[in-house]
Amino acid sequence: MTGAFPGGIAVPEDDAPDPVTRRRHLLRPAGVRFAHSVLVLWGAITLTFVALHLTRGSVVDAIIGNNTQVTPETRAEIVREYGLGRPVWRQYLDYLGRLLHGDLGTSYQLQTTVADAIRSQLPSTLALMSAATVLAVVLTLLIALLTAGRSPWIRGPIAFLEVVGVAVPQFWLGILLLTVFSFGLHWFSVVGGGLSGLVLPAVTLAVPLVGVLSQVLREGLERALDETFSLTARSRGAGATALLFRHALRHALAPVVTLLGLLVGAMTGGAVIVEQVYSRPGIGQLLLTAVTGKDIPVVLGIVLVTAAFYVVVNLLVDVVYPLIDPRLRAS
């Protein structure tokens, strides 16, 4: 007896994979992905721990601050309380041990748990990054769909603006938007929450993404429109709009989704700059304060959260791939 794979190729049913083999084929990639994720988190924590201990400055001095009347007994008590007198390798292993139990430690400066400190600032940063991502995706689709295959006098100015959006530093773009739309036109508030205070930061964070993604998507659309399947669809009477949306867009989205996952995963660095420019609360402000004050547990906690966010985004990209390309579902 014979069976058939998708695509009509007949094969003996005895050669078809049994349920146990299919389960192994499903679990093996999941196990590899999980191992990679653990390595990414461990590597981020380890490199940050080493870098923080190689920087100049004393943690005890950072904790004391400007207090010049601290006695040697007080300094010794600080060293004992935070375990700063132990060898660095012992501090590292102790931190990993606490981390495996879900303990991110206690902030030296804030005198609160790192989990509470991050939890209080994370929603603001997530709102900013989510708004910037949605804005970047919408603008990328609009720009690429409206300019793909168009004449040079339409594509030229748009391509120039895309390059400018990527090249301009985000802090300079943020200052420019503040100067024009807040101080000049008074359309948006300079600081504060709500939608008005979110628009300009989201635009500042989204512009570099749009500059990169729109170029990649437009080139993918133009290549797809020249493929054989596009010529076949035209010969069957498909209109330009149907061809663009139903055929070319799906084929052009795969590299864009990959690039979007990488850019969104690394967006935290841009969020730090944007939050500083617009004086927004969030992870960026917390990280800058922690680095300046050598607050090692807070820095490590933020790095761990950022790395975990990067891992989750790339896992979501893997989930989206089969929705874009049906061939991946069959495999």
Question: What would you note in describing this structure?
Answer:
- Helix 1 runs antiparallel to helix 13 (296-324), helix 7 packs across helix 8 and helix 9 (228-235) packs antiparallel against helix 10.
- The chain is built from 14 helices and 2 strands, in the order ββαααααααααααααα.
- By secondary structure, it is mostly helical.
- Helix content is 76%, strand content 2%.
- The longest helix is centred in the N-terminal third of the chain and has 36 residues, at 19-54.
- The chain has a two-stranded antiparallel sheet with strand order 1-2.
- The protein has helices spanning 19-54, 59-64, 72-82, 88-100, 114-147, 152-167, 170-184, 196-225, 228-235, 240-265, 267-277, 283-292, 296-324, 326-330, and strands at residues 2-4, 10-12.
- It has 2 domains: 18-100, no CATH class; 114-330, Orthogonal Bundle (MetI-like fold).
Keywords:
331 residues, mainly alpha, MetI-like fold, 2 domains, two-stranded antiparallel sheet, 76% helix
Set down the secondary structure blueprint.
Blueprint: E1 2-4, E2 10-12, H1 19-54, H2 59-64, H3 72-82, H4 88-100, H5 114-147, H6 152-167, H7 170-184, H8 196-225, H9 228-235, H10 240-265, H11 267-277, H12 283-292, H13 296-324, H14 326-330
Antiparallel strand pairs: 1-2
Helix pairs in contact: 1-13, 5-8, 5-13, 6-8, 7-8, 7-11, 8-10, 9-10, 10-13, 11-12, 12-13
